[in-house]
């Protein structure tokens, strides 16, 4: 086939004869092996086989046509003769260029020789080298594209079916072996010098840098290598192999970058303040990242990012953040929101460095908290104390939101700081419960629903930060009972919302009593409606209108209920209701809690009518003066059947100098002697028509200190309840595990108890109790191991 093709060539001059030789050599390289059956497709789909006669090939070649695409994508149908002429023309042009170095055609720049390229640029350096190298590589790319069309038929048929290297792949390999291999060191050096000049704020030609770096990537293509048109240019594509790019350029670039910025980081850390250092580093990182995006292969991004983060951020993080005069603490004290946010943005790139900011923030919060809880003035004002805590928490949360992008780690650090200083003051749980009582009695008046919810959420945040949550629940339950019984709560829906939030934090079992208290109040209203129907539409007897709340035993705070002798007006009402309740509920017993009862009494002997709100005991005392003008303390005690302690407490309220409803013989003496006389103060005057004699809860530490007995009782109750909780928890754990060591058991109990923080000594005492009760026993082989007894 090769010989027949060569005989058809017309006579040419010396250059043409050399071209003939080149063409013959090219065609001989693609001679078919024995029994091969390659396909040569034209318009007539002729199949040429090796064993056909030579004359058949000559007869058929006149009609055979080939398909060729030009640079614009147009399809040209070429005959065999015209194809040979095109190849001959291309070879002649190349030969002319190789002999003279010049070519008189308009696309002269498309043709270049590899060895001539190397000779022209191997002595150049720095920017001149990059400029000439990129120009020659562009020429090489165009020449390769131009020549690939000549060998397109061979590539698509013979090369493809024989799994040989394509023309484009071979051309790229030649350029890599002849030009790139000899220039790679000089090119890398020129690139590194250009980057160094840029870092020194000198001008560089990014076009040459970008094109040079792209050739480093193109050289590595080793599979499916193609040239694709992109606008007016041709681009290399294929399966990437970045080993050349990494070995020749990337590794050296990363190393030089590390060395350069190690020196600069030390210099900046010594001469700049914390905000200045952060600003310079951010500017540097943005500059380097922009270079990556615009001019380098994206595979370099991760490596360079790690290197820069380690040198500029992680290496000097602790020194910069903890700097005394301009570090994180100083920025927090000055409320420098912008600078703190910039600090977070920088160091969040390397998450382990955030621990230094977290530590500084924790120390800042604990310092402010310690000042707050040490303020003796605030310690005497529970409401003000809690308000200051809420203000501090709101301030810190705003800092976390604006400066640290609401990062959960910073919220946890702040909660831990609050937990640390709040639990140093033992009254914190009681004060928070008292603040809740203040809110429900009037603190939420005028607030919108959203404001109420926000306030409750803030209180719950404080609740999370206390260890003794069971004390809070105990005191909260006590205050809730008073609000429900005295009808002093402003918003029942708000009460239920708060209970729902506590249920989420503590579980349903913890707030079960609170929920049951609300249920009792609702059922009591239904019961009173039935009682009204039972008494023919009225609940009034002998001028007294009665309203009764039925409380489930064990669900409400137990309060000492002293028995007393009710006046006839009240006695009739209680008897009527007791009879009705027993008939309705099958003989259930009622226990009247007079200590929790209130009464509203209208006066008739003063210049104007007053409405007095009094306790049940006060009502019993006042009703005695309906029958007697003057009585001694001893007589009042005998007629009312009240204990002396409770009697004195109630008389103090009635004889209060600010609202003196009863007069005593010795008004300046605070004590009440048995023979001291009492009578109604006929000169009683008050600015308001409604007068309340029920003792108000005063949220002051001075007042709380007077309630020592009540506090001690609550503490004893909590102590006993904690012992029961510990016993139950230990039994539950041992029942599941059957056998456990002493250390592991204590660790697990501490982990599972959330209402309070049990001390190891408390757990040991509980274990000893359970051993005595034969729930547990010690192992005979190891006394530090406990065994559950079924």
From TrEMBL:
All residue ranges annotated as the Cullin family profile domain in the record: 427-655
Entries under InterPro entries matching the protein: Cullin, Cullin-like_AB, Cullin_homology, Cullin_homology_sf, Cullin_N, Cullin_neddylation_domain, Cullin_repeat-like_dom_sf, WH-like_DNA-bd_sf
GO terms (BP aspect): ubiquitin-dependent protein catabolic process
Swiss-Prot/TrEMBL keywords: Isopeptide bond, Ubl conjugation
A Pfam family: Cullin_AB
Gene3D superfamilies from the UniProt entry: Cullin Repeats, Cullin, Chain C, Domain 2, Winged helix-like DNA-binding domain superfamily/Winged helix DNA-binding domain
Single GO MF descriptor: ubiquitin protein ligase binding
SMART domains according to UniProt: CULLIN, Cullin_Nedd8
Family, as annotated: Belongs to the cullin family.
Full protein name: Cullin family profile domain-containing protein
Gene source species: Euplotes crassus
Lineage: Eukaryota, Sar, Alveolata, Ciliophora, Intramacronucleata
């Amino acid at each position: 086939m090769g010989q027949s093709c060569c005989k058809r060539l017309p006579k040419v001059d010396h250059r043409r004869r050399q071209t003939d030789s080149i063409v013959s050599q090219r065609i001989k390289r693609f001679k078919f092996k024995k029994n091969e059956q390659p396909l040569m497709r034209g318009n007539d789909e002729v199949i040429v086989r090796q064993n056909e006669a030579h004359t058949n090939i000559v007869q058929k070649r006149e009609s055979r046509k080939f398909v060729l695409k030009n640079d614009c994508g147009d399809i040209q149908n070429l005959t065999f003769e015209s194809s040979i002429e095109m190849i001959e023309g291309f070879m002649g042009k190349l030969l002319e260029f190789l002999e003279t170095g010049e070519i008189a055609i308009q696309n002269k720049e498309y043709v270049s020789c590899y060895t001539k390229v190397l000779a022209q640029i191997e002595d150049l350096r720095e920017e001149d080298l990059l400029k000439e190298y990129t120009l020659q590589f562009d020429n090489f790319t165009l020449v390769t594209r131009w020549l690939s069309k000549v060998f397109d038929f061979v590539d698509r048929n013979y090369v493809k079916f024989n799994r040989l290297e394509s023309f484009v792949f071979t051309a790229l390999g030649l350029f890599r072996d002849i030009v790139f291999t000899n220039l790679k060191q000089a090119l890398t050096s020129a690139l590194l010098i250009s980057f160094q000049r840029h870092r020194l704020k000198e001008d560089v030609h990014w076009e040459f840098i970008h094109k040079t770096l792209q050739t480093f990537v193109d050289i590595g293509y080793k599979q499916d290598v193609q040239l694709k048109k992109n606008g007016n240019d041709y681009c290399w594509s294929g399966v990437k192999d970045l080993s050349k790019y990494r070995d020749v350029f990337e590794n050296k670039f990363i190393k030089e970058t590390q060395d350069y910025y190690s020196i600069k980081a030390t210099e900046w850390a010594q001469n700049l303040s914390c905000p200045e250092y952060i600003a310079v580093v951010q500017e540097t990182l943005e500059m380097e990242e922009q270079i990556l995006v615009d001019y380098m292969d994206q595979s370099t991004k991760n490596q360079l990012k790690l290197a820069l983060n380690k040198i500029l951020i992680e290496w000097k993080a602790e020194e910069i953040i903890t700097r005394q005069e301009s570090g994180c603490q100083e920025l927090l004290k000055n409320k420098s929101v912008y600078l703190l946010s910039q600090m977070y943005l920088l160091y969040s790139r390397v998450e382990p460095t955030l621990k230094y900011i977290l530590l500084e923030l924790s120390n800042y919060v604990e310092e402010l908290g310690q000042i707050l809880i040490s303020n003796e003035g605030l310690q005497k004002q529970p409401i003000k104390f809690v308000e200051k805590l809420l203000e501090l928490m709101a301030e810190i949360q705003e800092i976390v939101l604006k400066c640290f992008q609401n990062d959960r780690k910073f919220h946890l650090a702040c909660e831990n700081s609050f937990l640390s200083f709040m639990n140093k003051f033992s009254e914190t749980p009681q004060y928070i419960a008292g603040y809740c009582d203040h809110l429900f009695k009037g603190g939420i008046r005028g607030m919108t629903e959203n404001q109420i919810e926000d306030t409750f959420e803030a209180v719950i945040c404080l609740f999370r930060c206390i260890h003794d949550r069971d004390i809070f629940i105990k005191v909260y339950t006590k205050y809730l009972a008073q609000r429900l019984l005295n009808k002093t709560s402003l918003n029942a829906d708000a009460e239920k919302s708060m209970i729902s939030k506590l249920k989420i934090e503590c579980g349903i079992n913890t707030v079960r009593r609170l929920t049951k208290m609300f249920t009792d109040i609702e059922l009591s209203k239904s019961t009173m409606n039935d009682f009204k129907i039972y008494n023919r539409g009225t609940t009034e007897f002998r001028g007294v209108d009665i309203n009764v709340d039925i409380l489930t035993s064990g669900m409400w705070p137990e309060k000492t209920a002293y028995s007393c002798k009710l006046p006839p007006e009240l006695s009739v009402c209680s008897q009527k209701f007791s009879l009705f309740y027993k008939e309705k509920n099958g003989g259930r017993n009622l226990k009247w809690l007079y200590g929790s009862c209130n009464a509203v009494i209208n006066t008739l002997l003063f210049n104007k009518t007053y409405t007095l709100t009094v306790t049940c005991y006060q009502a019993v005392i006042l009703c005695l003066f309906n029958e007697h003008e003057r009585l001694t303390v001893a007589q009042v005690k005998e007629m009312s059947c009240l204990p002396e302690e409770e009697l004195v407490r109630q008389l103090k309220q009635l004889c209060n100098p600010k609202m003196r409803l009863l007069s005593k013989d010795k008004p300046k003496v605070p004590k009440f002697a048995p023979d001291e006389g009492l009578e109604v103060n006929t000169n009683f005057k008050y600015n308001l028509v409604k007068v309340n004699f029920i003792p108000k809860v005063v949220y002051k530490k001075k007042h709380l200190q007077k309630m020592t007995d009540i506090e001690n009782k609550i503490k004893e109750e909590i102590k006993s309840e904690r012992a029961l909780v510990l016993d139950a928890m230990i039994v539950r754990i041992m029942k599941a595990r059957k056998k456990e060591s002493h250390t592991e058991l204590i660790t697990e109990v501490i982990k599972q108890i959330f209402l309070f923080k049990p001390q190891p000594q408390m757990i040991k005492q509980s274990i000893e109790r359970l051993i005595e009760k034969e729930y547990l026993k010690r192992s005979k082989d190891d006394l530090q191991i406990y065994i559950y007894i079924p």
